[in-house]
Amino acid sequence: MSSDFSDATRDTYNPARPPPLNYTIKCNRRELAIIVFFTLIFAEAGVLPLILFYSIRWGAHLDNTKILAIITSLVGTYSGYKMARRSYYLFISDRGHQRRPLGASRFGPDAFTIQISLAMTGFFVPLIIGSSLNPGSVQTVAMSLPCFMICFCVPLLLTGLWPHKLKMPFRVSSMPPYTGLPPAVYTMVEDVVAVDGGGCVEFRQAWRIRYEHSAIMRRIVRVTSLWWGASGCLFAGAFIAIAWTTADDIGYGIGWGLPWLWAMVSGALTIGWVHRELEREQKMWADPDVHKIYSLHITQTVDEEKVAEEVNDYNERNV
């Protein structure tokens, strides 16, 4: 899949290797933290709602209103804690400036905060409405995860279809207002690793440099944005249709179970494909076609420019 990066693209030649990101999950127990995070999220919004619904429905024989009220009261505890912790890192912590987007003010949210907030809204609206009705609507509650998928995946799809074409009148992570947005996977990787993964501004700079200097990396970001965006919207629509056209027991299981299957399969496919593409990038780095530099036009503070120089010096020393 080719990408059009307009007149900001130029060819260069560098016989060295790709600029390193200087970040790994194999230290500071980061790998364990990732496993714990996804396990608890899966338990909270996957295992728990399914177990509670069917065990209470078939065991205690309570009506839908009470069952859905119990589920709604428990879902969102861990994810809410993680969102609060993330907000603390960005807006309150004394070291928050080390994690914020490049050029952003103290209370400027990153793109992932906005995207996940919209997705969480899409998740909780049908959950709360469905459990508040009398009698409770199983079909409405079954839409929770599919609605999350749609709200989360639409930005991925749109920015993947039109990379660096869509513009916003406000800052989007490190991208200044009215700057063409890269595919949303770019800001997701930058924000999650910098804030939640502790990569801080050093990773934001290294990620920017890698993206700007590598045509293959830009292709990776765009293709993954398109895949997750298109498949997420398509499958979410199918899950919602099934939930409203089948029996309660089937529709609820589809709505709360199959989104996780989609995420796991997509994640496995993405990891395998990205690994192969990174190997190809490494082997083809001497090819001039790989070096089509695109400037993201990111504005930076004086301190951030110093960090960028340090990252560049690190890359040059480790060629």
UniProtKB/TrEMBL annotation:
<feature type="transmembrane region" description="Helical">
    <location>
        <begin position="250"/>
        <end position="274"/>
    </location>
</feature>
<keyword id="KW-1133">Transmembrane helix</keyword>
<feature type="transmembrane region" description="Helical">
    <location>
        <begin position="226"/>
        <end position="244"/>
    </location>
</feature>
<protein>
    <submittedName>
        <fullName>Uncharacterized protein</fullName>
    </submittedName>
</protein>
<feature type="transmembrane region" description="Helical">
    <location>
        <begin position="141"/>
        <end position="162"/>
    </location>
</feature>
<feature type="transmembrane region" description="Helical">
    <location>
        <begin position="32"/>
        <end position="55"/>
    </location>
</feature>
<keyword id="KW-0472">Membrane</keyword>
<feature type="transmembrane region" description="Helical">
    <location>
        <begin position="105"/>
        <end position="129"/>
    </location>
</feature>
<feature type="transmembrane region" description="Helical">
    <location>
        <begin position="67"/>
        <end position="84"/>
    </location>
</feature>
<keyword id="KW-0812">Transmembrane</keyword>
